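Note to self: user wants both folds in one dump. Writing first protein now.
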Amino acid sequence: MALLIRNGEIVTVGSRVQADIYVENETITRIGKNLDAPPNAERIDATGKLVFPGFIDPHVHIYLPFMATFAKDTHETASIAALIGGTTTYIEMCCPSRNDDALGGYELWKSKADGKSACDYAFHMSVTKFVKETESQLRQIVADGTSSFKIFLAYKNFFGVDSPRTAKMPNSWRGCSKSCSPRGRPVPNGMNPAVPNRSKPKALAASRRSSKIQARLATWFICRARRRCARQSTRNHAA
């Protein structure tokens, strides 16, 4: 069905213009003044309103089993809320646990959204393990249209890779990169808590030294200011 949005102030990255927008088969085909439309086209009067391109939210959680909790939203409620706020596309994080099969988890997440979302959506996939089946499964996921993948360093014992797996991380990373290529790309997420824990004693010691130096400097500046005030007071009395 055709749609004609009349008289809105169209806001883009580079301009703001008062014009009409004509949409056909869910695609904007014309922008201009006083556009014509078929008699059966839906018409919206946007006079006095701003018309933006649909926003894209690149990271949302809708179906989210996370450490024995679940998100409240469904794709129906979340997509309606998104549209009310002007978001017409969202990208949901697909997070199977390390005990789950990557492709099976991906299909489960898709089934939660299929036929239920009121707007466009896509997925960003977490890779919580890399076993021999994972490479072929990631290729299938990329072929299905998902090209963004995440490897967790945080969330130990759940999404994240633990210490034994960390040693295998370069292989997992190369395998994931190879599986996703050329259209997909993995990214790391979070901090491995073992790294700051190893550095904590040095950081605390440096912090204590810094605090002592700052205290000495503050005392020196205060004493200097007091001496200046005393000299100035003496001069004023002498005058």
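First done. Writing the second protein, which came from a different request thread.
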Amino acid sequence: MLTARELLNIHFDQVFRGYNASQVDAFMARLVGEYESLMQENNALKAAALKVDTQVVADPAESIDQQMMIQQVTEAQIQLTQLEQEIKTAQLELRLIADEKTTLLAQLRALIQDFTALLAQSEPSSHNADPVVAASTPTVSK
């Protein structure tokens, strides 16, 4: 399971046509905060549930409190599961972004190579008179 510290230390490479870095940072900060809160709440509720499990319930009012704590633990576990799913979805999106980055870089490299090849082909003829330039240049007759 990911820890809040691991979430804080995630770094995303910048890409030409990627997501807005400040928005990703803001989302990650929010995600880390919520994740930490849920983890703390979950741990506290687990500890409370364990404590309740070890006590003998003598008063019916305590039984109701125990049921409420169990319900809170269950709700916290559901929230944790939902957050874990959101994290998995975000990780999948990041993988897709990385794949798109790789594809775009390959396309860019191919375009640069094609452009370089075209430039190399046109350089030898640039020393000769360009027919378009020659036709548009006025001649002076004496």
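Dump finished. Worth passing along: Residues 4-136 form one domain.
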